Every structure is written in C-alpha cells, then in structure tokens.
C-alpha cells in the first residue's frame, strides 16, 4: 500500500463525524458497508455516513446508511453542501470514468477545507496473448473499429454512443444496465444486463453473435473482466479506452480497506 498523506482535522467532539461518499460503484458500496459496521462501535464519536448517487441508473443497488440521489449543482453546490452538512471527510468513489464529478469534488473540498480521498480500483493490464488497442476517447475508439472488425461488442455504457453513430457499415451488440437513448448506431442490438459476468457467459456471447472486436473502457475490477479473457481466448482484438486521470494532488486508495484505513487515521478513529 502506497502511503496516503493525511490532512490535519479540527476536533469537534460535540457533533458526529460526517463522511460523504460519492458512490455508484461496487467499491463505494463496500466502503459504506464497512463504515456502517463501525457506527455502533463503542468508545468512539458518533459517525454519520451519507452515500451520494448520481441517479443515472434506474434501479441502483443501494448502500447502507443515508443515501441522496442527484447532482449537487457543480463545484459551488457541492462546496455549499459540504459546509451546510458539516462534512468531516469526502471520499470520491465514483466510476473511474466519471471525470467531471471528480474535478468538482477536488475543487469543492479545497474550497470547504474538507479532506478528500479518491477510491479507484486499479486498471486492467494486458497480458502477452492480448491484442489490445488503446484509445484516448470514445471517438478515437470509433475511428479504430473499421480496421479491426465489423461485428462489435460494445461495453462502454449507454452514454457516449453518439461517437459510434456514423459507423453504418458495422454491426453492434451494446450491453448496459439501462436502455440507451439516441443518437446511437443504426445497426445495433441492445442487451440489458448487470454484472458480475462469468467467463462462460462471455464466451457464449462472443460465439453466438459472431463478435469480431470488443470495445471497453478501462474500468478495472473483477466484475466485468471475464470479457477480456473471453476475447483473448477467441483471438479477437480489444479497443481499450484509457481512463481520465485523478485530479492533481488528490491522494488515491486502491481498495475499500485502504480507504477505510485513511479515513480512520484522518478522523482519529484508529
């Protein structure tokens, strides 16, 4: 574990310590579960945990504790919320590709003088047998496809499909939790499903639909990784969209356990 710098925290024994988790990921839910288990621990100040979900998924899996759904109104709105609700620590556990909220969080935390940690699962790493083609954006990914295959398994989520809308000569199998909205490719079949996925299931999808190329974001984690192994076995290329960077100066934890250790040290709950 790489050492994560801890900020100085003012001690206010009269009020509960309030942790805001910007969530929507498996890691965020696991962190909320770990924090919920710590709430009744004796000999400690009260702990209040609020998980914030963006509201982009119709039926999200809710974490324990308080939950709020919807945006904050940008940097200023989030900073005001942090002050109004007396947040002692902010953890950005959003999806690795939710770049906008991460930069809002960094600026809002600095403005409100609230310590901030980013919880980011490690990205995937290509093996010797993988045929990966990196792309800096969905648009770059779309530009690579005509030279790689004509039947595309698209697993980048339901947003951003406009980048692929002009590829009329290609056929797409698009998988997401919720149905997409146009614009999207003209020749596309939608598969509504939620991970985790199995290697056997991903093998069958590639076989059944005659997939020739896979497109994915470098989300990391185990829940959706079997598609990479299935693509490797089938010998098909994979276009991997690189994740945006964490805002400069924000410490990063790779696991919920690391985030919990940072938080306990930050709040003096060791």
Provide structural commentary.
There is one protein chain. By secondary structure, the chain is an alpha/beta fold. It has helices at residues 26-38, 74-84, 99-112, 138-144, 199-209, 226-234, 256-266; strands spanning 17-22, 47-53, 66-69, 89-92, 116-119, 132-135, 151-155, 171-176, 188-192, 213-217, 238-241, 252-253. The strands form two sheets. The protein has a six-stranded parallel β-sheet, with helices on both faces. A six-stranded parallel β-sheet has the order 6-11-10-7-8-9. Strand 10 (213-217), helix 6 and strand 11 form a beta-alpha-beta unit. Mean pLDDT is 90; it is low at 6-10.
Structure, briefly:
By secondary structure, the chain is of the alpha/beta class.
Highlighted features:
270 residues; 28% helix; alpha/beta; 7 helices; six-stranded parallel sheet
